[in-house]
Amino acid sequence: MNGQAGKVRVAVVFGGRSAEHAISCVSAGAVMAALDPERYEVVPVGIARDGRWVLTDSEQALAITDGELPEVTGGTAVSLVGDPAGRGLAVLEPGAGMGEVLTAVDVVFPVLHGPFGEDGTVQGLLEMSGLPYVGSGVFASAASMDKEFTKKLLAAAGLPQGDHVVLRDADGAVCPDPAVLDDAARERLGLPVFVKPSRAGSSIGITKVTDWGRFPEAVAAAAAVDPKVIVEAAVTGREIECGVLAARGTGLPEASVPAEIRLREGVDWYDFAAKYLDDAAEFDIPADLTPAQTEAVQAAARRAYLALDCRGLARVDFFLGTGADGAEQLVINEVNTMPGFTPISMFARMWAASGVDFAELVDRLVSGALAPR
After folding, report:
1. Which of 19, 62, 113, 248 has the highest CB neighbour count under 10 A?
2. Residue range(s) in the chain whose domain bears CATH number 3.30.1490.20
3. Which fold has domain 164-233?
4. pLDDT tens track for 298-328
5. 341 and 351 in contact (C-beta within 8 Å)?
6. Which helix H or strand E contains 164, and what residues bound it?
7. What is the CATH T-level fold of the domain 144-160+235-370, as seen in this structure?
């Protein structure tokens, strides 16, 4: 152990270059507060919006206050040591021991959401550095971040998906040109549709389209976040989520009690503001499901986790409704390999309702990352 008095030194990495920078900061604040100071020494490492890594003040406010979103700004410039023998962070600031190894770490908790964090990029850097880390590896992170390939892998495992189209030109290249979605596809998808960046989260860049005349601007909004744009048919049904956590010892997936998201009257859909700013949703934890429905959700969540080769944790989002034949239908919407850890995040609340409080949840994730693979 590198930490003080035998404590495990945990580098909590947060912020990042994605549009989910602020939510990552809030998640990290909650994680750092939950790490037992008797067992863990926290090393807070922020990634600024321009990609700079800085050692931040552990007292930095990392919460949404009066609608203001937190952001990584200043700190001591550092870089992850690429040599596995270094196992730490090096100072980059001239006159401050530039190149000197500032601190070694035992494990990394990358509380990063979206591109350049949750998509396999940071995971690859950590693999090269020889550092254990919380969460899924390179492949699962990349595949789960990209909605197109999430759907392909889950479909290959026999898990149900909603109808969708990825906008590509005739040569197969990613092309956010609204005209690529032809009349036949529009007829098949119907209205409304949801136009989404393929590799983003927190509902950023998503537009619900109820009139094809508004489709081009929706595509432009999604393409501003990610050049790959996916168009999904609306799925009518209850919004159900389920947390997955690796079991101690075996690493096999365990499923939490499911939860249901219910939007308040007048709220059209679960967008960014509804999730984080407007208190626009109510949550039933556990969801009011029959035993058979609960079992089906949990089984599908575990199967999705394994199909994508996830590790440590995941949150699987579903729609539970009725198919064209009148039969009950469970459709997977998304899989998140690093779900939010904010005070209102569903992942932690589902596990609390399953008997695993937040401090134990964070401890299990860190302990699991340190366990031999």
Report:
1. 113
2. 164-233
3. Dna Ligase; domain 1 (3.30.1490)
4. 999 999 999 999 999 999 999 999 877 888 9
5. no
6. strand 164-166
7. D-amino Acid Aminotransferase; Chain A, domain 1 (3.30.470)
